[in-house]
Amino acid sequence: MGSAVEEKVVAVIMVGGPTKGTRFRPLSLNIPKPLFPIAGQPMVHHPISACKRIPHLAQIYLVGFYEEREFALYVSAISNELKVPVRYLREDKPHGSAGGLYQFRNLIMEDDPSHIFLLNCDVCCSFPLPEMLEAHRKYGGIGTLLVIKVSPESANQFGELVADPVTNELLHYTEKPETFVSDRINCGVYVFTPDIFTAIRDVSFQRKDTAILRRVSSFEALQPATRIPADFVRLDQDILSPLAGKKQLYTYETLDFWEQIKSPGMSLRCSGLYLSQFRLTSPQVLASGDGTKSAIVIGDVYIHPSAKIHPTAKIGPNVSISANARVGPGVRLISCIILDNVEIMENAVVTNAIVGWKSSIGRWSRVQAEGVYNSKLGVTILGDSVAVEDEVVVTSSIVLPNKTLNVSVQDEIIL
Questions:
Q1: What is the pLDDT of residue 355?
Q2: What is the pLDDT of residue 205?
Q3: Residue 33 gets which letter from DSSP?
Q4: Are 333 and 350 in contact (CB under 8 A)?
Q5: Which helix (H) or strand (E) holds 403?
């Protein structure tokens, strides 16, 4: 193998598929979840642009179940913008998080990379990828996981792990344990050597040889034991857990922010996290204004250049306004995502909400919620083409597309 200068690196981002994004409805009814805009950019844009910082990056692959046409325009645009080839690879059937990687091993290895990054699209963090690669080179082994310390109460929602405090070797890994194991969790961001393909192949071969019966999920635990297909390999249960404690896997702990974007409410939380990161990394994309020639802007705000904002409006903090939105006089926007072609009329207030494409909010109306991002009705969501008429208050509710609200609602799901 050549020197580090000659080595190439590739990145693989798992984007899932339409059956995986059900918790993201009604927003994912219009658009694949990975293309939903967060802080003014598609969700998948944030890990892709982070990959751009990896030294000697040769290629980025997106792997998922969506139809290729749904990603074609975005893949073409982002490849041109970042000057790095981005390619979408469609899985023919579910292969598991590691099996999906293995299915495309020949393509992934085309550039003969020394290292392969694997990222999950629905992760929101600062993606310290160059630092992970540097740490991994020092550790050796097959792979390094990004980990973070969380509260003991929330740890069991994720993969919990124990690492050696001196060497950072992964000693024990368990996915969503029923009893507390550790307050360190797996962030869903990895760097591997090509040896990962051997480890995945070994799991497939072992399964073929022994025809082991295993249960796939807690739901299926109630059913007769199910045989997992040999080519269905899960990264967490089938690779990370068995290799822990064998000097094969290591951890890199981030002290920065990390969240998982499973629900629309979490997308609003993560939009705020990315906007605050822009303050440090790319302040030029953030809006500013003092209420003279442009609206008053407070805190971290993104406004698309084509949006029209009245100078008497007051925007922020944590607001993202997409293309061709129109914000009228006296409007107040706090902690919200306003999507394409939305119209917000005079003196309306939107707080802790996501306003869907082509929706309209009437004069003196309010669209609001408490802002508990991870609860079902903690954020108000208006689907595509929802009309809120004048002087209507919508509180902690989810409104499906093409509805007109002429009376106030609270704590409701409008189907």
A1: 97
A2: 75
A3: G
A4: yes
A5: none
